[in-house]
């Protein structure tokens, strides 16, 4: 499948910069991964607009500038073992895969995991493992993680995820009690505890418990 033309890509990167995505490695990864591969049907032509778009199972692919800012906030080193909660389309995981050693991504909808896996295979992104699971429990068998990114909003950072973060590790998670007002926060784990800082207001679909019923 052919990607976007050079002009579209240039505009995309220019806009990401204007929205505060300044890390050149993050910009390079986002230039490399074609968002058009992760959007289907009538919205496919809008993949290079800075908007969230509908995907299967009533979910959304995040806005590119938010993907960029979250990825940047993780401060990846290239050697990281990353856990993502909320595979969705797989776009965020694909961007992470270019900047980290290994990415585990979980979604509660089996269909989304299946479809994302097919895109990862097509792009030969072999360092991503996608699994159907309730991500609010994390992924005990692969813990601890250098980085954790949650792409669905919780009231508070889930306890199992805090516990599965390495000392020295970073987690990025949208938190908030309502569907409309949430804050993206960064959690750093040190020897003595957890430090929190706020990044910006965001709006994500909710982190729900249990598995989806789509089969
Ligand atoms: N990162 C995605 C966007 C995620 S949308 C992308 O790049 O396209 C949020 C996703 O979180 C949805 O697919 C939803 O099914 C998933 N989700 C919500 N609660 C979850 C949970 N407890 N465990 C795993 N996934 C969850």
Automatic annotation (TrEMBL):
Summary of the function given for this chain in its UniProt record: Catalyzes the methyl esterification of L-isoaspartyl residues in peptides and proteins that result from spontaneous decomposition of normal L-aspartyl and L-asparaginyl residues. It plays a role in the repair and/or degradation of damaged proteins.
Positions annotated as active site in the UniProt record: 62
GO cellular component: cytoplasm
Enzyme class: transferase
Alphabetic keyword roster: Cytoplasm, Methyltransferase, S-adenosyl-L-methionine, Transferase
Location of this chain's protein in the cell: Cytoplasm
Any Pfam family hit: PCMT
Superkingdom of the source species: Bacteria
Record CDD domains: AdoMet_MTases
Main subcellular localisation: cytoplasm
PROSITE patterns per the UniProt record, alphabetical: PCMT
Protein's UniProt name: Protein-L-isoaspartate O-methyltransferase
Family statement: Belongs to the methyltransferase superfamily. L-isoaspartyl/D-aspartyl protein methyltransferase family.
Reaction(s) catalysed by this chain's protein: [protein]-L-isoaspartate + S-adenosyl-L-methionine = [protein]-L-isoaspartate alpha-methyl ester + S-adenosyl-L-homocysteine
């Amino acid at each position: 499948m052919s990607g976007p033309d050079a002009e579209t890509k240039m505009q995309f990167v220019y806009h990401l910069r204007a929205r505060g995505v300044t890390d050149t490695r993050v910009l390079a990864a986002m230039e490399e991964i074609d968002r058009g591969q992760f959007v289907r049907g009538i919205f496919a032509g809008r993949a290079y607009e800075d908007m969230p778009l509908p995907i299967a199972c009533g979910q959304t692919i995040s806005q590119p500038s938010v993907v960029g800012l979250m990825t940047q906030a993780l401060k990846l080193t290239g050697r990281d073992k990353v856990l993502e909660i909320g595979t969705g389309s797989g776009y965020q995981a694909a961007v992470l895969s270019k900047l980290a050693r290994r990415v585990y991504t979980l979604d509660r909808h089996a269909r989304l995991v299946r479809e994302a896996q097919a895109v990862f295979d097509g792009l030969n992104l072999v360092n991503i493992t996608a699994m159907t699971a309730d991500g609010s429990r994390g992924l005990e068998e692969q813990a601890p993680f250098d980085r954790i990114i949650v792409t669905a909003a919780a009231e508070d950072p889930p306890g199992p995820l805090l516990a599965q973060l390495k000392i020295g590790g970073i987690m990025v998670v949208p938190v908030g009690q309502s569907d409309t007002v949430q804050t993206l926060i960064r959690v750093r784990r040190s020897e003595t505890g957890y430090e929190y800082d706020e990044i910006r207001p965001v709006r994500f679909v909710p982190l729900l418990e249990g598995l989806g019923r789509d089969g």
